Amino acid sequence: MFEDPVRYHPVLEDAVLSPSDIHEILSLLQTELPAQSTSGSETTRLGFSLEERKRRRKISNRESARRSRFRKKKHLNNLTDQVNQLKVENRELKNRLCVATHHCQAAQSETDRLILESIVLQQQLAGLCQILQHSMQLH
Q1: How far is CA 80 from the centre of its chain?
Q2: What is the SS3 assignment for the chain?
Q3: How far apart are CA 107 and CA 111, in angstroms?
Q4: At residue 37, what are phi and psi to the nearest 5 degrees?
Q5: Which site in 22, 35, 111, 132 is 20 to 30 Å from 68, CA atoms measured?
Q6: Cα–Cα dist 135/139, whole Å
Q7: Rounded to 5 degrees, what are φ and ψ at 82?
Q8: Backbone angles phi, psi at 72, to 5 degrees
Q9: Pfam families this protein is in (predicted)?
Q10: Per residue in 89-105, pLDDT tens?
């Protein structure tokens, strides 16, 4: 009716155990329970079992906390790297903006100079046209 628990266990069917897991399981199986009195044998066994579970849970919690600290540290390092990269990119963009602003100001100065030159040339042309008209009227 019942299968041999050593040969087959449905919960562990697909489980992958690390060497440390196997060592811990074997050490638990090899651990002998302390001598028990006949009146409190169940209590002592349950007490040992509870203590063992507490010890294992404590170890598991410590390992989980260690992994969590590692993940947080890795995340912080990634964020720090990203901040540094963004600072470099920001500096480069500011430099490009400064160069573009300088080019824009130079172009505006050149435009202003050309407009002034155009006005002077138009005035000179107008003056020449008046001289030409005046000289044609005399002849």
Answers
A1: 8
A2: CCCCCCCCCHHHCCCCCCHHHHHHHHHHHHCCCCCCCCCCHHHHHHHHHHHHHHHHHHHHHHHHHHHHHHHHHHHHHHHHHHHHHHHHHHHHHHHHHHHHHHHHHHHHHHHHHHHHHHHHHHHHHHHHHHHHHHHHHHC
A3: 6
A4: -80, 155
A5: 22
A6: 7
A7: -65, -40
A8: -65, -40
A9: bZIP_1 (PF00170)
A10: 999 999 999 999 999 99
Whole-angstrom Cα distance, residue 43 to residue 110? 98
| Per-residue model confidence as pLDDT tens digits over 33-78 | 444 444 444 445 556 788 999 999 999 999 999 999 999 999 999 9
Spatial CB neighbours of 37, under 8 Å, sequence gap ≥ 6: 44
- Name the amino acid, one letter, at 99: V
Question: Cα(14)–Cα(68) distance, rounded to whole angstroms?
Answer: 26
pTM over 0.85: no
Degrees to nearest 5, angle at CA 135 with 129 and 138: 145
